[in-house]
Design goal:
By secondary structure, the protein is mainly beta. It has one domain: Calycin beta-barrel core domain (Lipocalin, Beta Barrel). The chain is built from no helices and ten strands. The protein has a ten-stranded antiparallel beta barrel. A hairpin with a 4-residue loop joins strand 4 and strand 5.
Length: about 140
């Protein structure tokens, strides 16, 4: 069963040679369960800087993955204590991205919930910064 939800995503980035930055997006989405995972679907807005992009967040028992398609294409995997490599297509070219997840806390169920991910990101094998991702999902009733 699919549930209409209100999604709030807040990302915070701390770069070595720049000021810390944060972005927050609140939008409508859909949440559903399939097997042992919960899927969250929503569309990015121009305010998020990703243009017309569809995002799917998959909450599995031991990891979270974020897939984007549209103006930006990516597939990032967050698994505590592990590093995952993927490609991030920004429309004008692709970057090799490494994601090293330091901590992953989530409590997602049929009525929504929260997730918090702390990770470092490498771009082309160079540390790009320390990041935090906060996701809140609430039914729209």
């Amino acid at each position: 069963m699919k549930t209409s939800v209100l999604v709030t995503v807040r990302g915070m980035q701390d770069y070595e040679d720049a000021d810390a930055d944060s972005v927050e997006l609140t939008t409508a989405g859909t949440l559903y369960e399939k097997g042992t995972a919960y899927y969250l679907l929503y569309e990015e807005t121009d305010e998020s800087g990703l243009g017309k992009t569809k995002t799917t967040v998959k909450f599995e028992p031991d990891r979270v993955s974020v897939s984007r398609s549209g103006e930006t294409t990516s597939h990032l995997i967050f698994e505590e204590g592990k590093k995952h490599i993927s490609y991030y297509d920004m429309g004008f070219g692709s970057l090799c991205v490494g994601v090293n997840t330091h901590s992953l806390t989530k409590n997602i169920g049929p009525n929504g919930g929260t997730a918090e991910i702390r990770y470092s990101m490498e771009i082309n094998n160079a540390l790009a910064g320390e990041n935090q991702l906060f996701i809140t999902v609430r039914p729209t009733q």
